[in-house]
């Protein structure tokens, strides 16, 4: 599939979820490089840069996409032939995809330690990292139940309910606005991440901050499940995370309200670090305040001095 095709599928939400977006973009770049049979390095570079820009523009909020793309281009400035360039991109893409898949397994294992028999667990939207934790805990024989928020307007909570039901995990869907009502009876919250800023703030599906607020009020631990490539080097320079706004028709159909009615559809929000108990990553369970260290140590200098 061409980078343009993958970008279109990301834009239309056919490919979604922060980690999946990043893996599919890396795979698209690999295929793009491999499909070039010429030997003109300059031409190959320029094609790849165009594809990179198209992919990066497809969804603006998930830093995993940007980190994944940076990873694929790592050291490509050092090569001197088109063949070397192709090999480098292909190896980098494979490494990124494998690293991402293995991170998910480790997060599942570490996060599962936090689930106990009899727990009532809340999750929001559809995060493969959060689901990996629940799947692993269930596979270990722990017995608990999950409350999945619907996650309007795309209703990714239905996907989560299907994923969990397939594993045999008891799951109840609630509408987003029911979350405070049920929170007093809950034991844990597990959510995923699109981006974690250098101050430990979490950017995730719209409504995550309300879930966190309700959890904080009810003293229910709020855990984020996130691979280290969800941490944003760009925020070290004070850059704000761009919150994607999507089309009004995702909320109201054409003609449902008169034209003077405005519709505002932000699809992510920011949860401050003080509402987050811990972040489960593939290198360990950390407090949100360790985000800066993760960025410096795990993502490294090449991510810090970025150029767009
Ligand atoms: C998905 C979403 C998920 C994160 C993490 O939003 O907010 O919680 O992306 O997912 P959308 P994962 O449906 O708009 O992409 O853990 O799978 O990376």
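^ structure tokens above, recovered residues below v
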């Amino acid at each position: 599939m061409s980078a343009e095709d993958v970008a279109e599928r990301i834009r239309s939400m056919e490919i979604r979820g922060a980690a999946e977006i990043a893996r599919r973009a890396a795979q698209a770049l690999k295929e793009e490089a491999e499909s070039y049979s010429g030997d003109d390095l300059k031409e190959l570079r320029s094609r790849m840069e165009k594809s990179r820009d198209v992919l990066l523009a497809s969804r603006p909020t998930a830093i995993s996409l940007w980190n994944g793309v940076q990873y694929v281009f790592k050291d490509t400035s050092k090569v001197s032939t088109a063949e070397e360039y192709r090999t480098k991109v292909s190896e980098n893409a494979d490494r990124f995809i494998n690293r991402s898949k293995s991170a998910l397994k480790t997060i599942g294992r570490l996060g599962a330690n936090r689930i106990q028999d009899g727990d009532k667990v809340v999750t929001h939207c559809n995060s493969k990292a959060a689901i990996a934790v629940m799947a692993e805990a269930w596979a270990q024989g722990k017995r608990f139940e999950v409350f999945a928020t619907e996650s309007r307007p795309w209703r990714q909570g239905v996907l989560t309910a299907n994923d969990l039901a397939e594993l045999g995990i008891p799951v109840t869907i609630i509408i987003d606005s029911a979350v405070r009502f049920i929170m007093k009876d809950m034991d844990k919250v597990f959510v995923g991440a699109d981006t974690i800023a250098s101050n430990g703030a979490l950017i995730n599906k719209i409504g995550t901050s309300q879930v966190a607020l309700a959890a904080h009020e009810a003293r229910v631990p709020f855990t984020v499940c996130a691979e280290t490539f969800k941490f944003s080097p760009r925020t070290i320079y004070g850059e704000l995370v761009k919150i994607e706004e999507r089309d009004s028709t995702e909320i109201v159909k054409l003609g449902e309200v008169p034209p003077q009615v405005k519709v505002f559809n932000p699809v992510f929000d920011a949860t401050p670090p003080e509402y987050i108990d811990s972040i489960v990553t593939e290198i360990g369970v950390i407090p949100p305040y360790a985000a800066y260290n993760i960025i410096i140590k795990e993502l490294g200098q090449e991510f810090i001095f970025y150029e767009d």
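The first helix runs from residue 3 to 11.
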